[in-house]
Amino acid sequence: MNILHIDCSPRPESHSRQLSAAIVAMLLEHMPGASVRRRDLGSDPLPHAAPDYATTLSSPATLAAPLEGALDLSEMLIREVESADGIVIGTPMHNLTVPSVFKAWIDQILRADRTFMSTPAGKVGMLRDRPVFIGVASGGTFSGDRANQPDFLTPYLSVVLGSIGLKTLQFFPLQATAFLAEDQATFARAKALAAIDLTVLAKAPCPAT
What angle do the packed helices 100-109 and 72-82 form, to 10 degrees? Predict the structure, then answer.
């Protein structure tokens, strides 16, 4: 099994990093022979869309004849996803949604005629489904009875990842981190992880041969 582990927080010891690391540890315990590939968007952010990339994606004609090198970064990131049997993402909630470094990654892996097809009914994913475990840390509260802010992150990621074929998503919210002492954060993290469903690993479609 190959695991793609993505972190998005700029903080080295952030709650989302601890949460994603704990998810990876659980997967390795369940699948001890698994390998892990790291993509740390927080400490090594991707560039935002370059002019050549944006121009290439601007129409079917330019996409059919891409500028030299314009799709190289996108192709590398897509292949990382394709080679993974499971994906673990740790992300903070920044201003109600995903951090800009995570959006830069999304903008590279959503590519017409490569990871999705455009149809009259909308985008249809071209990648095989696989389990995606998403740890979300927020300084405030965005779900449940005590929610005091909206959540644009969860529905956005559900639609975006689903549009390329990744539909087996599990979200693990760690909320109100701005007000948690260390022992409270540890308890909250364990509570979030208690909801993980590892049976999806056995049910995941196998890569085509």
Answer: 90
